Write the structure tokens for this entry.
Amino acid sequence: MTQVPLAQAGTSVKMTNVRWQIMFFIFLIQVLNYLDRVNISVAAPLIQKEFGFSPVELGVIFSSYTWGNLVGQIPGGALAQMFGARKLYVIAILFWSAVLAATTLAKTVTAFVSFRVAFGFFEGMVWPIAAVVAASWFPKSERSRAMSLQSNGMVVGLAIAPPFITMLMLRYGWRTAFFISALLGVVWTFFWLYIMREKPDQHPRVNSAELAHISENEPAARKEAAEKPLSFMAAMKIVLKKPSLYAVCISNFSLVWTLFTYTNWLPLYLQHERGFTISSSSYVAMLPFLFSMITIPCGGIVADWLYKKTGNLKLSRKLTIVAGLLAGGILMVPAALASNQMTGVVTLALGYSLIMFILGPQWAVPTEVGGSKAAGHACGVVQVLSGIAGIVAPLFMGYVVQVTGHYTIGVIVAGAVAVIGAICFPILYRGEKDHYRELAA
């Protein structure tokens, strides 16, 4: 382990910010993650026309991504704890890029489903790995903002995808769009290997001031975390008994229901329900994600500000998460029922972005429940349990469209799920009572 010398007494050392550079590259991987993920929904009109898939069959293809995604979550967290985030990010993105490119060979529902399951498996590792990095590289007072930054990559990717993929597929075909997206991930790996180290004290550009800041208020725990990691079963035993973990499972279930409903169905909703063309819908589809680029970092900033202002971590998490889910969920009703085209779209975009407001404070919780030794396991559990929504929501919307010919019920149900999450979260969340105590483990 590389030791970084401490500054001499009485000297002032300007703190480096390597941790934020690393989180910026995790932000970029999230951009690519969601750009690659949403390719198929943007290309859905062309794929549906080429192969004659029904709405239910499209729903199955959309949903199948989540089957693999859930399977990859806990292994991703456990492997990141064992072998490190630096290596595992590279493995995950190289494999999912290869599978994405191979999806262009699919011609049947079964083939598309098979490729999407494999693709989802490797993409499923991303969030647990990010939690491991946040737990190792950021103090408690910055984790909401850190997770907000990486979470914002999600909506940036979703915002870029409609115009970018539409442009490529209208000019060169949907298969070329898939190939280009896959290539971007391969390029990212070279930069990641250059910038990343597993621990702050192993990085040559991290100075003593940044090391002290990262270990703020928990130097003993940081020292303990550098020792042998917990076994898989020991880590799972710690995180599974924490009620706060299940509070996040519920809030994230609500968020994932909204996310997968619109990630998969928004282009078709805009074209069939709101009357936009393929070309115009590619730009209108950016609105929910553009709004979320503002609300997601605001969620992290507000949560960390409340914590610093009140010293009450439990209150800061509760207020931001409940407010986002409740306000966003309620707005889905007028969004679904609005008769004016743009009023409905803008209201939906605002409701969506308010639900995404919770991402930073929400994903700070697994890093605190699991600590630097089990954050990946905690994040994996949350993703698996809440990811059920990612399977059900696309199927539900496909069924609604096929039976009713409209999307209205699906939009209202997404809002109702968010409101239920807002009610349930504060019942289970216990704040610092459920934090992992490394020295006692």
About this structure: Residues 64 and 114 are 8 Å apart (CA to CA). The chain has one domain: 18-201+224-440. The longest helix spans residues 143-172.
